[in-house]
Amino acid sequence: MSTRRQALLCMSHSPLLDHVDPPAEVRAAVDASFEQARAFVRDFDPELVVNFGPDHFNGFFYDLMPPFCLGFAAHGTGDYDSFDGALDVPAPIAEELAQFVIDRNIDLAISRRMELDHGAVQPLEILYDGDPAATPVLPVFVNSVARPFVPMSRVRALGQAIGEYFASVDKRVLFLGSGGLSHDPPVPQFATADGAQREFLTAGRHPTAEARAARQARTIDTARRFAAGEADIMDLNPEWDRGFLEVCASGRVEDFDRYTADEMDAVAGHSSHEVRTWVAAYSALRACGPFEVTYEFYQPIKEYIAGFAVTTAALV
User: Fold this and answer.
1) Domains of the chain and CATH, by start
2) Marked catalytic residue, from 183, 206, 270, 273
């Protein structure tokens, strides 16, 4: 068991993990990175996980889209056969944290009935043998899909405020970020969506089983065609991914501020904004002190439509 009080794990997710078949050596490398992540968590033995996660129009929609939201209670949506159940959210800590963050001029929304999709629960499933409710978790939604986006400096400020709160809390706290890196999956953009798509993006929660299955089938089909070089979506950008990972490892979290939404769309894809969860997590850890990245895995994986990465970091 670690004596450190704060640590970090950031990792890509993909709803396609159990639905497509990358080359065996790629799958083995990803599985090995997951085992490294699990070993890190076992050694650290967190008493609480602060889970910075995105959403893919499963729990948050344009009828009310906050830039940030802290859950006082949370439930998995079950999309892509992900966790469908209640998480163990310590509401008194969530309430105190929310006030602390708001008092530092961060406009944080709260939810007493948050719904978390695969983007938030998949890392917990990987780390805790399929059971995201195995450890207490504070879910922090960071909008990573729906324009308009706040400047990256505000994401950093959110993470910093949360880190400052936990810097003086006598618990082992794991900051967990989920998403990215470069990728451009077939998620409709409101500006170019048709009427039915706009209605879904605005209020498409709790779809029928048939509608959810059709949506998932489209994504799986796109992934297979992308891997075969046949899909009309933006390619992955390993150079951009490695540059972002270099900023993470540098400890200079203020360097995240140079990332702009328009440039990210243009060079890394519309879903590259999921790195905002990493920015929040790394900024939270930096608020607790200097750190070093202790493990890094990266590989561009077309079958997962993702520049796929896993990193761990500890205070020094």
Assistant:
1) 6-315 (3.40.830.10)
2) 183
